Hints:
This protein folds into 2 domains: 13-242, Hsp33 domain (3-Layer(bab) Sandwich); 248-303, HSP33 redox switch-like (CBS domain Like). A hairpin with a 4-residue loop joins strand 1 and strand 2. It has helices at residues 32-42, 46-63, 115-119, 148-158, 193-206, 209-214, 219-226, 248-258, 260-269, 288-303; strands spanning 13-19, 24-30, 71-78, 85-90, 93-98, 122-129, 136-141, 163-171, 177-187, 232-238, 241-242, 273-276, 283-286. The protein is 36% helix and 28% strand. The longest helix is centred in the first third of the chain and has 18 residues, at 46-63.
Amino acid sequence: MRPLLTGDYGGDYLVRATAAEGKVLVLVARSTEMVGEASRIHGTSPVATAALGRVLTAAALMGATLKGRQSLTLRVVGDGPAGGIVATVKEMRVKGYIREPHIYLPLNAEGKLDVAAAVGKGMLYVSKDLGLREPYNGSVPLVSGEIGKDLAYYFAASEQTPAAVGLGVLVGRDGEVRAAGGYILQLLPGADESIAERLEKNVAATGPVSNLIDRGCSPDDLLRLLLDGFTYTVHERLLFRFACDCSRERLKEVLLAMGRQELEEIMAGQGEVEARCGFCTQVYRFSREELEELIAMARQGEEH
């Protein structure tokens, strides 16, 4: 179930609203705790924290448009030192990782963490499991590496929906996540040029989202800034968090999928196996006896 929020709350949450008589969809989130947890789990450097945090926040925002047990995976695959970033969301539980969490780069020309240089040039991929026979898959080239602009380009090019996307992570000098959050503004059918122009002015006046969150702004506060001059309706407020659904049983299925021959090679070479979840770094160890059991199961499967 989607974790709905009622009353005041000081942690991570997301607001979904519409404005201009349903012609604008707005999603706004504060993700400081989620990004901080991801940074702690993966031991990320400041620039890796910023890059991973933006992708995780984007996944949370996009997850608010899903229904039931639908899921979404966002992948940023560039040629920069980050080596690729993945985030997945299902029922507002978000998980993700950056392939190279310990990268260090000089600040960019504006004196900020250089996420674009960390990501480099490449592709952005979106996959949605909507419960249909085949998942929806979309992709676009990275136009900036800053994630927000890349996602806006994805909405326009792949989903034919003009959008403004703001994503931000503010990392303190001690490496701790001080503030993180983001928003997606989408123009829906019927939105005219005057609506787009007003939203552009509001986005420009609002400024970097992480700075506002650091100063104490809530998602509802940001919503009011982004929709200044519009009448809007809040449809729901959702809680979300970093949460991994890995388990020993799932890792057993992965090992079984490797096949009997490869399992026998592991048995001969190592005697046991250690598997680490890429999303949460949890380590699962399988003893020689457990490997023998898996080999027997794999052999039985081949016979049938």
